[in-house]
């Protein structure tokens, strides 16, 4: 692009542009930068709204509005990216005034422009949300609510992006503009809820996302159990208790996750709302107590021993026949071994599939440790 033309567009100097073109010809009007940005792209990038308005009044101006750069971005994409509400509104107003006629009838030029994707299938709304431009996003959504249902190559929906970027007002706006089933998809099978912006009042409108799992089978409840966020666990269970029974690809429920991380408050809430979740076993036949022992969570072991309706877990065996005491020995959880061994309800003589008691395992491991030390001497 001619240097003087570029500077005129960047600075919004339309008078200079007219002088340049009158002296050098109309061809300058259609030049582009190395990124294939035309003169309106450049002006939109620098929020030169008056300059854009004057360009669009020229005979060749409107045609530049649909022109994509090397990424397929239109000038509207760049205006949304820059957060220029005035430029976006100007482009929308112009597009509204246009009427295209094709073989199948009339086309809505405004919606055609708004929904035009770039090479990554990003619309202008994706760009506005990535930049955190609430006012631009609001303008776009109100103009064309269907933008909310367009996902890009990365499987990012506008609702997911709004949640992921921490834009609760836009999240509420997307959910509130229409009863239409807008996409809440995110990358790797994640949803807007997985993006950690969960709000109870939001999911009154979109409760179906509560039970959607990502690529490893984790629902939002699995993640809240992981982080020990008992308030969000309570809120999710308020809307759908069945989510507590959802399992990931290893057969783990949110109770298993909470147990492994030692979040007793979450365990207590899950069992209060869904007491029979304590019966859920993983693909290895492990209970929440087994998982807690593998994670070295002494507090969960104490909680289990002190809760009457969890007594069945104390001597439960996994698919290898290991009880809680076996696993404590196998994973060298000495504090847990001590706690379990002192409890009269624990079956110290239970054997696993190798016909070993927990004491046998403990003895074998001690002998291995002793032999290792002897070799090092």
Question: Would you kindly provide a written description of the structure presented here, covering whatever features stand out?
Answer:
The chain has 377 residues and is mainly alpha-helical. It folds into three domains: 1-116, Alpha Horseshoe (Serine Threonine Protein Phosphatase 5, Tetratricopeptide repeat), CATH 1.25.40; 209-275, Ankyrin repeat-containing domain (Serine Threonine Protein Phosphatase 5, Tetratricopeptide repeat, Alpha Horseshoe); 281-377, Ankyrin repeat-containing domain (Serine Threonine Protein Phosphatase 5, Tetratricopeptide repeat), CATH 1.25.40.20. It has 22 helices and two strands. It has helices at residues 3-11, 14-24, 39-45, 49-56, 61-64, 75-82, 85-97, 109-115, 124-130, 134-143, 158-164, 168-176, 200-203, 220-227, 230-239, 254-261, 264-273, 288-294, 298-305, 324-330, 334-342, 358-376; strands at 99-102, 105-108. Strand 1 (99-102) and strand 2 (105-108) form a beta hairpin. The longest helix is centred in the last third of the chain and has 19 residues, at 358-376. The model is unreliable at 100-105 and 188-205 (pLDDT under 50). Pfam families: Ank_2 (PF12796). InterPro entries: Ankyrin_rpt, Ankyrin_rpt-contain_sf.
